[in-house]
Each structure stands twice: as C-alpha cells, then as structure tokens.
Amino acid sequence: MEISRRTGEIGAAIVTALLGIIVCYGSTENGIQWDSSGPQPGYFPFYIGCLIIFGSVATIIQTLLRRRDGEEPFVDAERLRNVVFFFLPIIAFAAISIWLGLYIGIFIYIFFTMWIPGKMKLHNALLTAIIVVAVNYILFEVLFTVPLLKGPILNALGIY
C-alpha cells in the first residue's frame, strides 16, 4: 500500500482545516467581538482558527498547482507500519488512563514504549517510568495543585 505525497498533503490540509473550523466555531460560543473591556474570550482563538484554515487552503492550492514529476510517496507500507506502532500505544495510553487513572497510564506507556520498541534495558525503562510519574505528580498535585485523574488503584491506596 502506498499513498502519494499529493494525496497525503491534501488529506493533512483537510484535517487541519477541519480543526481550524472547530476552533472558530468553539470561539463563537465565547464571543469573538471587541467590547468596552477589551477582547472577548473567543477573540484570539477565532483568528488563530482562521489562520489555520487559511494555511490549509493555501496548502491545498499549492499542492494542486505543483508538478508531479518524480514525486516520492507520502507513506509506504514500512512508514505506515512505524506510524501504527507509534499510534497504537497512544490509543492504549488514553484508554488505560480513563480506566485506571492518568498516573498508571503514564507509567505503563513510558515503561512499555521504552522497553519494547525503544529496546531499553528493563530496569532502565522501569526507573524512567517511575521518575516520570513522580515528576508529574509533584508538578501537578503539589506545585500547581491541579488534581489529575487517579483511578481506582491509587484511590484504593489512599492517594486522592
């Protein structure tokens, strides 16, 4: 399976344009006007969304106007496999974090991605995962006092 560079660039530009549209739409719910006290909360995000849409449309036009001689593929089977092996652990991280809490999800994600695809030694991957979780806990829970999702395991251990 091979996707041409042209198709990939147009597809990516469409996705970013849709994200820009979502940002613009969400901004209108917060107000995008300039009133007596200054800009409303959606003012700057709205115009950032407009810039994203403009850039996406410009990319589509540029891609359509460019010559196609000797074009390398956007993605081939090997590159797609690498993307999937990168993307699937992130999906698993999100699912585990919702189910078991963010800190357990971070630990599992860091540990397994460093140990298996990263080919790190088991004890190094384990130590790194523990340090990353500890640093995140200290930053969010202690310094910023922003509680993150703990999940049933940490709640059972009395960590709220």
Automatic annotation (TrEMBL):
<feature type="transmembrane region" description="Helical">
    <location>
        <begin position="12"/>
        <end position="32"/>
    </location>
</feature>
<feature type="domain" description="DUF1468">
    <location>
        <begin position="12"/>
        <end position="148"/>
    </location>
</feature>
<keyword id="KW-0812">Transmembrane</keyword>
<keyword id="KW-1133">Transmembrane helix</keyword>
<feature type="transmembrane region" description="Helical">
    <location>
        <begin position="124"/>
        <end position="149"/>
    </location>
</feature>
<keyword id="KW-0472">Membrane</keyword>
<protein>
    <submittedName>
        <fullName>Tripartite tricarboxylate transporter TctB family protein</fullName>
    </submittedName>
</protein>
<dbReference type="InterPro" id="IPR009936">
    <property type="entry name" value="DUF1468"/>
</dbReference>
<feature type="transmembrane region" description="Helical">
    <location>
        <begin position="44"/>
        <end position="65"/>
    </location>
</feature>
<dbReference type="Pfam" id="PF07331">
    <property type="entry name" value="TctB"/>
</dbReference>
<feature type="transmembrane region" description="Helical">
    <location>
        <begin position="86"/>
        <end position="112"/>
    </location>
</feature>
